[in-house]
Amino acid sequence: MQLENAVKVRKLELNTVLRRLKDIASLLNEPGELYGYLDRLRENYSELNVLINLFPFEPEFKNDGLCLFGHFDELEERISGKKGSFAEVVNQFKATISGNGRAALKIGITRYNFFCLEDIVKFCLNLKGIEEDMHLPSFNVFPVGMIIKNFIGYANEIKKKINGLGIELVLCDDELVEILQVVQFHAQRGKISDKELVRLLGVIAEHAFIGPQTIVFDPYHRCNIKCKHCFVHNPKIHHPQEFLDRKFDYNIFKGIIDDATELKVDGIILQGDGEPLLYDKFFDMLRYARSKDIGVSFFTNGSLIGENKAREIVDLGIREIYCSFPAGIPKIYELVTTSGNQEIFHTIVKNLKRLMQIKRESNKRDPRLTMTHVIHTLNHHELIDMAKTDVEIGADAARFYLIRLDDNNKHLKLSDRELEVIKRDLPIAARVFRENNIDFVDNIKFQLEHYDNNTGAWSKDIFLKEGCTIGWYFCLIPALYDVSMCCHLRTVGWLNRQSFKELWNSREYRRYRIQAKFLRDNKDFTFPNGVKLYDEHCEHCDNHQTLITNLENLRKLGLYKFVKQ
Ligand code: SF4
Ligand code: SF4
Question: Is this structure's pTM higher than 0.70?
Answer without folding.
Answer: yes
